[in-house]
């Protein structure tokens, strides 16, 4: 079973930047896509909003329309880590951000979540 460990959340003013990291272990060789969802109060994690993802082999990037041009997802294959660089943050970006891994076969794996709070 794989494991995802997130880091990098925190409090930032509107217009500021944060970088989240998701370090994967275990099933990384079986990874198809690694990325991020975010959960706002009142929503369950699995019903949260897709933010961004990257395919592990080809590096193809996927973004939600709400973050295009502001967020960048990247991967460090050597360290089995995926990053989410978040720029021009807005109060509506406030959420718990969860890293996920979709394997080529099997069920999705989730990280523990990291809080991002953007003050106005």
**Main beta sheet:** 7 strands, mixed
Rg (CA only):
13 Å
User: What is the helix fraction of residues, given as a range?
Assistant: under 10%
| Number of distinct helices | 0
Kindly state the mean pLDDT as a whole number? Answer: 92
Shape: globular
Low-confidence stretches: none
Distance between the termini: 40 Å
Q: Report the count of strand segments.
A: 11
- Percent strand equals over 45%
Summing up helix and strand content along with how strands pair, one would put the structural category as: mainly beta
Write the H/E string, N to C: EEEEEEEEEEE
Structure description:
- This protein has 120 residues and is mainly beta.
- It contains no helices and 11 strands.
- Strand 7 and strand 8 form a beta hairpin.
- The mean pLDDT is 92.
A few lines on this structure:
With 120 residues, the protein is mostly beta strands. It has strands at 3-7, 10-13, 18-25, 31-39, 49-55, 61-63, 71-76, 81-86, 95-103, 109-110, 114-119.
Keywords, please?
120 residues, mainly beta, 7-stranded mixed beta sheet, 4-stranded antiparallel beta sheet
Q: What is the secondary structure topology, with strand pairs?
A:
Elements: E1 3-7, E2 10-13, E3 18-25, E4 31-39, E5 49-55, E6 61-63, E7 71-76, E8 81-86, E9 95-103, E10 109-110, E11 114-119
Parallel strand pairs: 2-11
Antiparallel strand pairs: 1-3, 3-8, 4-5, 4-9, 5-6, 7-8, 9-10, 9-11
């Amino acid at each position: 079973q794989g494991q995802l460990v997130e880091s990098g959340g925190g409090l930032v003013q509107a217009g500021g930047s944060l970088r989240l990291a998701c370090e994967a272990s275990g099933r990384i060789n079986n990874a198809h896509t690694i990325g991020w969802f975010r959960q706002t109060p009142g929503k369950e994690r699995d019903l949260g909003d897709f933010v961004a993802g990257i395919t592990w082999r080809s590096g193809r990037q996927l973004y939600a329309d709400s973050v295009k041009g502001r967020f960048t997802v990247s991967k460090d294959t050597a360290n089995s880590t995926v990053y989410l660089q978040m720029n021009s943050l807005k109060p509506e970006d406030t959420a718990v951000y969860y890293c996920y891994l979709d394997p080529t076969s099997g069920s999705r794996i989730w990280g523990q979540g990291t809080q991002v709070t953007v003050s106005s």
